UniProtKB/TrEMBL annotation:
It comes from Bacillus salipaludis. Keywords: Membrane, Transmembrane, Transmembrane helix. InterPro entries: ATPase_put, DUF3939. The chain crosses the membrane at residues 90-113, 125-149. It comes from the Bacteria. This is AtpZ/AtpI family protein.
Length: 321
């Protein structure tokens, strides 16, 4: 889910777009003619506002925008940390339902008892029907209480799973989707749309199968069919790849995890100093046991807070001022 913020600073409009994923925070910022996009990798135990603070300072985000974002993050945390309110509601609900439970069981037992007594008086075999009616009333009362408990105290986790199942309904449905030809850019747009509509707590990695191929049954409604060829996705960076590059996402996930762990423990990137290409130094990762074997693909460390890429970075033009 993406969140947009807008501030009007005189003649200049300031826009900020935030997207929160499991592994990183997507940021798109514009202010007048200035435009900046970044992916802040969440590889440390920091809050979301701490990750954004550095970006705000580097790009001179206005104080008004900072306050609005911080207010949003604070309200979001308060919305998530509702344990006290939930506990209070639980007590109110429990006390009210306890009264209902007691009345339900009492009426069921009393009704069973009276019915049994009446039958005993008619057939003169006391206390046979009285006992049967009493136990039958206890049983009916127990079933009634169980139904109430199941209805009113249904697990939130179960509800969340049901939401995810609703999103993934195509997986179990018998819908016949046509086979279509699509480009990787069309797949990328479909993945973004799918991700934006996911329930809270679910991430686009649910699209990725064991071999890193994309499960297009979940994307069929966004694409208009099932692609005629496979596409693959990295679980760590969400980069997309075609069939000819299917080994890259597997190696990319391994290398990204190794780089994240290296940075977390050593506070520096595993690359040679002054390397203009910012290549991931596999020797450093192998020597310190972050990797078991050197990948076939050469990866590079981007400017997006430690995310790796297989694309060779372009040389910066030194003549530009």
């Amino acid at each position: 889910m993406k969140h947009k913020f807008t501030k009007y600073l005189g003649r200049v409009t300031e826009n900020l777009e935030l997207g929160f994923e499991e592994k990183w925070i997507y940021v798109h910022y514009t202010k007048g003619s200035t435009e900046k996009t970044a992916c802040l990798l969440k590889n440390e135990k920091k809050s979301e506002d701490e990750y954004l603070e550095r970006f705000f300072e580097e790009n001179k985000v206005s104080e008004e925008m900072k306050k609005e974002v911080n207010k949003f993050l604070k309200n979001d945390k308060n919305h998530n940390d509702t344990h006290w309110n939930e506990f209070t509601n639980f007590l109110i609900k429990a006390l009210s339902l306890n009264m209902v439970f007691g009345i339900s069981i009492a009426l069921s037992v009393y009704g069973g008892f009276k019915l049994g007594s009446f039958l005993d008086s008619q057939f003169e075999i006391y206390p046979t029907f009285t006992l049967i009616g009493t136990f039958l009333g206890i049983g009916i009362g127990g079933v009634t209480v169980y139904s109430m408990v199941y209805k009113y105290f249904k697990s939130p986790i179960k509800k969340e799973k049901e939401n995810v199942k609703t999103v993934n309904r195509d997986l179990t449905g018998n819908i016949d989707h046509p086979i279509i030809d699509v480009t990787i850019e069309e797949v990328r747009r479909a993945v973004r749309t799918f991700s934006d509509n996911l329930p809270k707590g679910a991430f686009r990695t649910i699209l990725v199968q064991e071999d890193n191929s994309i499960d297009f049954k979940q994307l069929a409604s966004h694409l208009g069919g099932i692609p005629s060829k496979k596409f693959y996705m990295s679980k760590e960076t969400y980069d997309l790849f075609e069939e000819s590059e299917k080994l890259i996402p597997i190696e990319m996930d391994i290398v990204q995890k190794a780089v994240d762990q290296y940075v977390k423990e050593r506070k520096e990137y595993p690359m040679l100093k002054f390397d203009p290409q910012r290549r991931v130094n596999y020797y450093q990762l192998l020597q310190n046991h972050y990797l078991k074997a050197a990948p076939e693909t050469q990866f590079y460390i981007t400017d997006l807070d430690g995310l790796v890429t297989h694309i060779l970075p372009q040389k910066k033009n030194s003549s530009q001022s």
